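Pipeline run #58 for the internal structure catalog. This entry was flagged by the ingest filter as a single-chain record with no existing model, so it goes straight to prediction. Upstream metadata was stripped on purpose; only the residue string is passed forward. Reviewer on rotation: M.T. Logging verbosity set to normal.
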Amino acid sequence: MTTTDRPRPFRKLGHTGPEVFPLGLGAMGMSALYGPADRDESIATVHAALDAGVTLIDTGDFYGMGDNELLLADALRGTDRDRYRLSVKFGAQRSPDGAFIGFDGSPAAVKTSLAYSLRRLGVDHLDVYRPARLDPTVPIEETVGAIAEMVQAGYVRHIGLSEVGADTLRRAAAVHPISDLQIEYSLITRGIEDAILPTARELGIGVTAYGVLSRGLISGHWSKDRSGEGDFRAHSPRFQGANLDHNLALVETLRAVAERKGATVAQLAIAWVAAQGEDILPLVGARRRERLAESLGSLDVTLTADDLAEIEKAVPAGAAAGDRYDAGQMAHLDSEK
């Protein structure tokens, strides 16, 4: 399937956030964690996304130790600032060898991290600013309060959160309106449906869903013998041994459904996330133009009630084998508590 040039209805990030194109671009893989990337192709992909109408671009100050922000600065240089919205995560602490060594959500870290992000990105404000994880040593009220000061000062437009649970959402929203929660959500990662998503909806908080293809696992392009240096997926439970065999079998079941719809597996999986509610914005981590084009094709996939039932039968909730992160990372996720 191919995309068309017709206007796309925008989606609003919660009750208070910006209106954005119905698909966001996640830039992490352009600099980190998925193995080597082609910088020129990554920049070309950002340009292609803007040309297609994409407005929300998501990054983190710790992606590639700041390299991702510098890459985006190069890609966006000369582009009218009104054409795009920047969503930035902060707080992850890293050592010179790249290891993750903790998280800092303190008010001082909020302001210092923001200052560096603004400089690296070459902009005077961020559209959404969010802690990447909950700092267990700092009350969420203090973190959100510090960002709220930056909203008042004009450096930030909206406050977001990432990977937090329902209780934390409530506490944060009591301090300042929260535009959206960034959290993993896909056909094979549906934990938010129990308590987090209902709470977000009650509070008027949107969801920006990352991992909609489960890091490529349900893209329809993953193969058992695939591996790469610097690719953290080699250590992910879902990509290992019998778990991988099981999960790829699910993909083949899904492929049959996709073919009947005239879509690719990736397009069907993205369209399923988008169909779960207009308050949900899928983020796609395309780092090549061909993958971006495929993802944009999901906007042409209309899923009926019968289609959704067929997809649910092919990949029911809880069908995946293995956790989405390793045990150490899972233990630090407030959203999993």
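catalog note: Residues 11-336 form a domain with the TIM Barrel fold (CATH 3.20.20.100).
catalog note: The longest helix spans residues 241-261.
status: ready for reviewer M.T.
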